[in-house]
C-alpha cells in the first residue's frame, strides 16, 4: 500500500495515524517532492474510477492562474488535466491511498481510510 501525502495537511496526518494504529504496512510518498508522472496519474485515476478534474484542488492559487474552472471536462480534455496535475502536483487532492488489491481511494475521512484496511 502507498499513501500520497503532503505532511502539512491535517487529513494526510490523520490518515497516516489511522494506518499506523491499524498496524498497516505502507509506503509514504510525499508527492510534492516526488510528483507522479502522467502515466502514474492515469493509472491511479483508473484505479480510483475518477476523472482528473475529480481529484483536482480547484481552490489552489495555481488553479486560478491556469483558469481550470473554465477547462472542458470531456474525455478529450483528460490529457490536458493530467498534464496540469503532473506539472503542478499541489493541485492533486490528498491523501490518495493505493491498496495492494488494486483499489485506490481519496482518503479524506476515517471511514475511507479504514475501507482499504479490510
From TrEMBL:
Gene3D superfamilies noted in UniProt: Glutaredoxin
Pfam families tied to this protein: ArsC
Transmembrane segments: none
Stretches of the chain forming a coiled coil according to its record: none
PROSITE patterns: ARSC
InterPro entries in alphabetical order: Arsenate_reductase-like, Thioredoxin-like_sf
Family of this protein: Belongs to the ArsC family.
Stored PANTHER family: ARSENATE REDUCTASE
Protein's name according to its UniProt entry: Arsenate reductase family protein
Species annotation: Amycolatopsis dendrobii
Amino acid at each position: 500500500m502507498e499513501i500520497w501525502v503532503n505532511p502539512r495537511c491535517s487529513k494526510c496526518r490523520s490518515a497516516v495515524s489511522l494506518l499506523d494504529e491499524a498496524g498497516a504496512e505502507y509506503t509514504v510518498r510525499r508527492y510534492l517532492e516526488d510528483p507522479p508522472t502522467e502515466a502514474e496519474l492515469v493509472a491511479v485515476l483508473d484505479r480510483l474510477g475518477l476523472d482528473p478534474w475529480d481529484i483536482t484542488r480547484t481552490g489552489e492559487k495555481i488553479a486560478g492562474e491556469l483558469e481550470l474552472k473554465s477547462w472542458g471536462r470531456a474525455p478529450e480534455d483528460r490529457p490536458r488535466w493530467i498534464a496540469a496535475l503532473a506539472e503542478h502536483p499541489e493541485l492533486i487532492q490528498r491523501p490518495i491511498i493505493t491498496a495492494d488489491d488494486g483499489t485506490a481511494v481519496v482518503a479524506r475521512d476515517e471511514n475511507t481510510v479504514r475501507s482499504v484496511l479490510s
